[in-house]
Amino acid sequence: MRRFFIEQAEIAKDKPMIEGPDAHHITSVFRLKPGDEILLVDGTGFEYRATLIRISKNQVEIAVTEKYAVRTESPIKITVGQGYLKDKKMDMLVRHLTETGITRWIPMISEYSIPQIDIKKNSARVERWITIAREAVKQCGRTLVPVITAPASFAEIVKNFGNTDLKIIFYENEAKPLGQTLLPGAPQPSEILLLFGPEGGFSTKEVELAIANGFVAGSLGPRILRAETASIAACALVQHIFGDMA
């Protein structure tokens, strides 16, 4: 059954409507008809079974027949601070990290970030990342849309997450594997912050600042991974150790 996204405020109306790209997909791509059933995701943890009532070119009226919680979310909350990458690698990371189950994604300005941040275009980029995250949620069966924030500096992120249970900065010059870095017998974390550098990695100064603020340095092994590969591999590894990918 096809899954579509709907705002929580819209689903609460007497006659909920689907508009925009999803309405186009219903009418023109999937060619669904009145009486057909679909699944709806509101981005807050619930899924709905609904019946199509009335269809026009840009709007689809629905009737909700069932509401239920879906258990596809990880038991841990993972925030990712991602150093800016070139080209469209950031778009790809939003999609794939949403699939791994992260709950927050922060584009991060660090010392070796190469792309220059265009303030005028930045809000449009954030909106695009939110759209990409929503599409990934529909595809992978999740019910919660990760929070996509405005860009923040490395120092801001390092200093503003003091209450997080576990904070890891992934650093290519760290010798110990991640499993040896984590303290044996430590309590199960509920919130984790992961920091990944841009193509040039982190500077020694940044790593020292992170460790001084309660981070542990993590390694992904002896092979040098591309920046985008490292982020995906590390999130999957952390979900395996602490979440629901075991």
Structure description:
There is one protein chain. The protein has 246 residues and is an alpha/beta fold. It is elongated and about 60 Å long. It has helices spanning 8-11, 21-29, 89-100, 119-140, 154-159, 178-181, 204-212, 227-242; strands spanning 3-5, 17-19, 37-41, 46-55, 59-69, 77-83, 104-109, 147-148, 152-153, 166-170, 191-196, 216-218. The model has no long low-confidence stretch (mean pLDDT 91). The strands form two sheets. Strands 6, 7, 8, 9, 10, 11 and 12 form a seven-stranded parallel sheet that branches. It has a five-stranded mixed sheet with strand order 1-3-4-5-2. It has two domains: 3-69, Hypothetical PUA domain-like, domain 1 (Ribosomal Protein L25, Chain P), CATH 2.40.240.20; 77-242, Alpha/beta knot, CATH 3.40.1280. Helix 3 (89-100) packs parallel to helix 8 (227-242). 33% of the residues lie in helices and 26% in strands. The chain is built from eight helices and twelve strands.
Question: Helices, strands, pairings?
Answer:
Blueprint: E1 3-5, H1 8-11, E2 17-19, H2 21-29, E3 37-41, E4 46-55, E5 59-69, E6 77-83, H3 89-100, E7 104-109, H4 119-140, E8 147-148, E9 152-153, H5 154-159, E10 166-170, H6 178-181, E11 191-196, H7 204-212, E12 216-218, H8 227-242
Parallel strand pairs: 1-3, 6-7, 6-11, 7-8, 7-9, 10-11, 10-12
Antiparallel strand pairs: 2-5, 3-4, 4-5
Helix pairs in contact: 3-4, 3-8
